[in-house]
Amino acid sequence: QVLLIESGGGLVQAGGSLRLSCVASGRTSSTYRMAWFRQAPGKEREFVASIRWNVGSTNYADSVKGRFTISRDNAKNTVYLQMNSLKPEDTSVYYCTADSYGSEKAWGQGTQVTVSS
Q1: Which residues contact 33 (CB under 8 A, 6 or more apart)?
Q2: What is the pLDDT at residue 16?
């Protein structure tokens, strides 16, 4: 099992930036992909961005392309989400996930991001 701890959320004005971090521990040797999802009040959880752990290839939701960047530090077992040009509609709880061979998808506890207009 992989344990995920997110940090970096907070309150920011529209147009501002935040960087989220997610530290993975436990059975990380089998992890092949990490991602960020988000869920706003009254809405379904949605995919934001993902990164393949070994090769570093990335994928983004159309709504965040060009504004958000996902990256990882393999030595620290950490994935980051740099969020620039934030909009009020980016307000959500952001969740880190890990996909590992032989295990169910792991989810972090979430971190709140609030963007004021």
Answers
A1: 50, 51, 52, 53, 98, 99
A2: 98
